[in-house]
Amino acid sequence: MEILSGKFYFIFICFILIILSLILFCFLNFKEFKKIYKPVLLFMLLVLIIIFIMKKDVKNDFQVDKNILKFYNNYIEQKISIQNNYIIIVGDSRMAYLSRDENLLLPVNMKFIAKPGAGLEWFKDTAIKELKNILNHKNKDKFYSVVFNMGVNDLGNYASRNVISETYYNLYQDLALKYPDVMFYIMSINPINDYSYRNKSFPKVTNNKIIGTNKKFISLIDKNNVKNVSYCDAFNSLKFGIYDGIHYDSKTNKKMLNYIINDCVLKAYE
Question: Using CA atoms in the order 60, 66, 68, 70, what is the torsion angle rounded to 10 degrees?
Fold first, then answer.
């Protein structure tokens, strides 16, 4: 409402100036003054008319902005304090492309550690080091949450899906035990388009393998029962728009961002 209110205040001031001008015009008899002031009065009236003509367009433009703000406020500002929380997302190309999606308004309290084509080796050699560097220098006034979304690129490189889930889980658990004041979320490996993706560079990846790997993650989380490790089932919670067999469209990225904030991270606050 601040932008709209500002316009009304401006119009109100113009009204006051016009009234004062009329008072001066009626009660002051200095001919030279009236001669100079008449053009000024006319100019002010024209300004006021232009403002009224533009008023409708200004209101409509603001209404669009208001709707955008309302949408993001629903899942960012109203449910999570930007000042007191910090979310780190670690992932492969899916998270990397989400972070670069120009149609999304990313929260200012969100950090991405993500790379296209990333797998287990990148996670061990690069991502963990970067993540530890952040967590070792935490802002004491913020609560930190880490969301992992790794594994789809590894499914074509390993014979057993159990190897993937167990290797990743052990690395995740080590981090959780090292940083007990940080909440760690293992998000499901999410679906591909079986037909499109099978004909590309990783023909061994299938949704059945993904489902099996996710189930193994869940069993490991339940078995070990580490208090600051939780599972987020985006696979069964969202409908995915897949444009090339593996990567998601902008609409899906928006739903994914919403899911991470509302239905994944915020579970810890309920």
Answer: -150
> Would you call 67 helix, strand, or coil by DSSP?
helix
The tokens of 4 are what?
């709209």
**For residue range 77-106, what is the model confidence (pLDDT) as tens digits?**
444 455 678 999 999 999 999 999 999 988
Residues 6+ apart with CB under 8 A from 29: none
Residues in the chain, total: 270
Please state, in angstroms and rounded to a whole number, the distance separating the CA atoms of residues 128 and 15.
63
pTM to 2 decimal places: 0.69
Which of these, 220, 223, 148, lies nearest to 182 by C-alpha position?
148
Contact 126, 132 (CB under 8 A): no
Q: What is the pLDDT of residues 115-153, one digit of tens each?
A: 999 999 999 999 999 999 999 999 988 999 999 999 999
Q: What are phi and psi of 125, to 5 degrees?
A: -85, -30
> Using CB atoms within 10 A of its CB, is residue 108 exposed (0-12), middle (13-18) or buried (19+)?
exposed
